[in-house]
Write a structure and sequence with these properties.
By secondary structure, the protein is mainly beta. It contains no helices and five strands.
């Protein structure tokens, strides 16, 4: 048998809860997610850099630190 495409390496993922940006309408759904380095988005605004992932359930953004996957 030959592997045509490898699946995601589950060892490089980390578990996070969807929290959104806080409370109220921007709060997340609380889903437990396995987040991979490739899921991290980066935005630059007004001299600040934000790192976050987007929940596949509710589509809210949850912030993470810049070094979340620095050991990979």
């Amino acid at each position: 048998m030959k592997v045509l495409e490898k699946g995601p390496d589950t060892k490089s993922g980390k578990e996070f809860r969807c929290r959104g940006w806080g409370i109220g309408p921007s709060a997340g759904c609380g889903a437990l997610l396995l987040v991979f380095p490739s899921d991290i988005q980066v935005s630059h605004y007004d001299g600040d850099t934000d790192y976050y992932f987007i929940c596949p359930e509710c589509h809210k953004h949850t912030a993470v630190s810049a070094n979340t996957f620095s050991n990979h």
